[in-house]
Design a protein that fits this description.
The structure holds two protein chains of two kinds. Chain A is α/β, with parallel strands linked by helices. Helix content of chain A is 38%, strand content 25%. Chain B is mainly alpha-helical. Chain B folds into two domains: 169 residues, no CATH class; 210 residues, MetI-like (MetI-like fold). Classes of the chains: A alpha/beta, B mainly alpha.
Chain lengths: 360, 398
């Protein structure tokens, strides 16, 4: 657990952080956010004493951080930054080994750990161990940067805009990947960003700062539904309803879908269609192929083969891990009021309806 | 319009321009008037002899054939790596042949005209040797995957030259005669030359590295430091020696301690002082540049992961900066070896002694006895430091 009590940082002429008090629980993902110059990075860097607080107390698991030597403290805390800061003259493996090396781990233990971490971040150890930072793409370098921060298995991780310099596609895939990793690791994380979407996507709790002061500290859901003041409201933007949907996984909102199989008896399908406004159509294995609209029944006679609206699954369907925002986007694009939910082999597992989104 | 087909037909021909130019120079010197110069005595006016007039016919034809072969190879269009192998073989043979035949001619002429006669390399031979060295160096550079072979061949050529030198085959060439007249002096001046240059660069390294780091870390010192060093660099060496003579003479007269360690207005003291001052700039500037290349993000990450300042310096900053710093030392060393030759004027010794004696006596061969070793020493220092840089260059940084 990290606790800050009345922490202030003054520089000649300015106060960067003003009487800040908050705590981050064990295994909690806390995102510090605010406009530039709001003191979020200063706050982060005070936790590992790269910046010394002018006054106030910082505690880690109840111990005042000033009771440690700064180096000793920092070796217990992972640190990842926007510029990555990999050492260019060291290989990926050597970079990851820095903190274990400082802690004097045995070589065999370090080797094993490097392999584990590269695997965790989806980088094949045999291919990546010996590479140099200049041979890595931006996304790979930042994966190694975060792996390096986790090398000595610290319980706390400090991250200063780690995905800020990446292109939007790489950034999002790294955010998702990191989210997944964090679900397994349960680190206590303090994460600085100025990107509200990133904060909403990752955070368990968001701490909004302005001019060195805490404005609101709450879960993303609560901040989106009841922003504390006008500043927060402006900061989270006018599309906060959409942002909320971005927090909701499809999993929790989907319902079972009505479907027929291509090889079903047409008479039976026609009867079933008459009772519903639409039906999903799958093949014998249950893979989504298209859908049927009740309107086709107006044009007699019913011929199943001609009536099916065949679809490209990727354009229409969402996965259970997708967010409600993505589901909504697909429905708007397709002009439908529901979207099929398929697993990664295109098997139809359910559907999500616009009405459910509106109630969520 | 350039169609796809016409671009396909266009084939890049591997012309080795450097080898071609070397071959042209080689052929020119094959026919030039002055391959060697004959003088009845050390300071008399010389008479120039062409290659054809000074070496046997077979030798002349061998030169002609080899140079034509080099010219043809350079425009043959075969792969540059392969060309390098052949041109280095030709270059090596030509170089050894040149010295072998020149030595032979000198020995024969000395026998005929007596030992006070002097046979020196003429303009033609200098151009010839220059073209051959260029050919070899060019081959080493273009060797590609054959670099090792070509380098070994060049080394063998150098070994062959040393063999000719040690077996006395070149003893009747005038420069060697000057050398035998001053054999003991030659080695003592060599030692002095090396000592002056290396001790100055050593002192400049001890001063320049901290100065470079200081200028980088303390922004207020940046401009004044490099302003001063740049001004120092622009002072002509003779002027700087001149300024130091009265200054050191005064200090030496005033303080007995300084006098006791041997500091005088002339001699090694002003020479080492001036050479040190000249050497500081390249070292300090490269130290500054070397440390400046370290990514601030890497430093932040290093500190944030719990490295101490010392660990950061030893494990991150120095490994990244040292090739650049060593390159500064290389520049300083090559520069100091050249400048040391001038220091002979203020009584510091070194190869410059022969140069200035030779100038005084109008004896070109004596001048060369000072100048050629100075050049070879500078080239050797350059090569050795470059090799050191390649060794310590971390693989992750180009």
């Amino acid at each position: 657990m990290i606790e800050l009590v009345n922490v202030t940082k003054e520089y000649p002429g300015t106060v960067a952080v003003k009487d800040l008090t908050f705590e981050v629980g064990d295994g909690e993902f806390c995102v510090l956010i605010g406009p530039s110059g709001c003191g979020k990075s200063t706050t982060l860097r005070m936790i590992n004493r790269l910046i010394e607080a002018t006054s106030g107390t910082l505690l880690i698991d109840g111990t005042d951080i000033r009771d440690y030597r700064p180096e000793e403290l920092r070796r217990k805390i992972g640190y990842a930054i926007q510029s990555v800061g990999l050492f260019p003259h060291m290989t990926v493996a050597q970079n990851i080994s820095v903190v274990p090396g400082l802690l004097k781990w045995e070589t065999s233990r370090i080797d094993k750990r490097v392999g584990e971490l590269l695997d965790l971040f989806g980088l094949d150890p045999s291919a990546y161990k010996g590479k140099y930072p200049r041979e890595l793409s931006g996304g790979e370098a930042q994966r190694v940067g975060v792996a390096r921060a986790l090398a000595a298995d610290p319980s706390i991780l400090l991250m200063d805009e780690p995905f800020g310099a990446l292109d939007p596609i790489t950034r999002e895939s790294l955010q998702n990947e990191f989210s997944r990793i964090q679900r397994g690791l349960k680190k206590t994380i303090v994460f600085v960003t100025h990107d509200i979407d990133e904060a909403i996507r990752l955070a368990a709790r968001i701490l909004i700062m302005r001019e060195g002061e805490l404005v609101q500290y709450d879960t993303p859901e609560n901040i989106l539904t009841s922003p504390g003041d006008k500043f927060v409201l402006e900061f989270i933007g006018t599309d906060r309803a959409l942002k909320r949907l971005a927090r909701l996984p499809v999993q929790g909102l989907m319902r079972s879908a009505l479907s027929v199989v291509l090889s079903d008896d047409p008479g039976k399908v026609e009867k079933s269609l008459a009772e519903n406004s639409y039906l999903w159509v799958t093949d014998n294995e249950g893979r989504l192929k298209g859908w049927l609209d009740r309107k086709v029944l107006d044009k007699a006679p019913f011929n199943m083969e001609d009536s099916i609206v065949r679809i490209r699954v990727a354009d229409f369907a969402v996965s259970p891990d997708s967010t409600a925002k993505e589901a909504l986007s697909k429905m708007v694009l397709a002009g439908t009021s529901s979207a099929p939910v398929v697993d990664n082999t295109d098997l139809l597992v359910g559907e999500i309806r616009l009405a459910d989104l509106l109630e969520a | 319009m350039l169609t796809a087909q016409s671009t396909k037909q266009f084939k890049f021909i591997n012309i080795d321009r450097v080898a071609l130019i070397a071959a042209a120079a080689g052929l020119l010197s094959t026919f030039a008037a002055g391959f060697v110069t004959f003088k009845p005595n050390r300071i008399a006016a010389g008479e120039a002899f062409s290659l054809a007039a000074s070496v046997p016919l077979q030798g002349f034809l061998a030169f002609l054939a080899l140079w034509i072969l080099v010219a043809l190879l350079s425009i043959s269009g075969i792969r540059l790596e392969k060309q390098a192998v052949f041109t280095s073989i030709c270059g090596g043979s030509l170089l050894l042949l040149t010295f072998f035949l020149a030595g032979q001619y000198a020995t024969a002429a000395t026998l005929e005209h007596g030992s006070i006669s002097r046979i020196s390399p003429g303009t033609g031979m200098w151009i010839m040797v220059f073209a051959e060295v260029v050919l070899l160096l060019n081959a080493v550079q273009r060797g590609g995957e054959r670099t090792r072979f070509v380098t070994a061949l060049s080394a063998a050529t150098v070994a062959g030259f040393v063999f000719l030198l040690l077996t006395g085959h070149l003893n009747d060439i005038s420069i060697m005669k000057e050398y035998f007249n001053r054999q003991d002096r030659f080695f003592s001046e060599f030692k002095v030359h090396l000592l002056l240059a290396t001790s100055s660069v050593g002192a400049a390294t001890l001063l320049g590295i901290p100065l470079g780091i200081l200028a980088l870390k303390k922004k207020s010192l940046d401009a004044p430091t490099f302003f001063t060093l740049n001004i120092l660099q622009t002072i002509p060496s003779l002027a700087l020696f001149g300024i130091l003579i009265p200054l050191l003479a005064y200090l030496s007269a005033r303080y007995s301690l300084i006098r006791e360690i041997g500091v005088q207005g002339i001699g090694w003291a002003p020479a080492v002082t001036a050479l040190t001052l000249y050497s500081i700039l390249p070292i300090a500037r490269n130290t500054y540049a070397g440390f400046a290349t370290v990514d601030p993000g890497a430093l932040d990450a290093g500190l944030g992961m719990g490295m101490t300042r010392t660990q950061l310096l030893m494990k991150v900053e120095i490994p990244i900066a040292s090739p650049v710093i060593l390159n500064g030392i290389r520049i300083a060393l090559v520069q100091a070896i050249g400048l040391t030759a001038v220091a002979a004027l203020i009584g510091a010794g070194g190869f410059g002694v022969f140069i200035f004696q030779g100038l005084g006596q109008a004896a070109v061969d004596l001048i060369l006895l000072g100048a050629i070793p100075t050049i070879l020493l500078a080239v050797a220092a350059d090569g050795i430091t470059n090799w050191c840089i390649a060794v310590i260059q971390p693989r992750g940084i180009r």
